[in-house]
Amino acid sequence: MSELDIQIPNTFDPFAEANAEDSGAGSKEYVHIRIQQRNGRKSLTTVQGLKKQFSYNKILKDLKKEFCCNGTVVQDPELGQVIQLQGDQRKNVSTFLVQAGIVKKERIKIHGF
């Protein structure tokens, strides 16, 4: 038998690249904007991943005033502080964060249908 006939099975980790990107000094930190379906036509928009140097309550106050919706800041044990807004405000929130200079457009990921 030649060396080419023998194959050693390797474990393949599909998330190895994602984990490698998270660790390291030059890793990108994204702001995730998601939508959660409640009941019927009701939905909830969540914003997570903002830097801790920002005041979440002040950002929430401006978002509520700008989009005429209610919202709250929720403390999650895994994700930290998460902003929740009523309704589908994904595009509105992303443009607001870019125009306010809080986040660059490349660092925003919008999730949902």
TrEMBL record:
Q: Which species does the entry assign this protein to?
A: Vaccinium darrowii
- Top-level division of the source organism's lineage: Eukaryota
Q: What is this protein called?
A: Uncharacterized protein
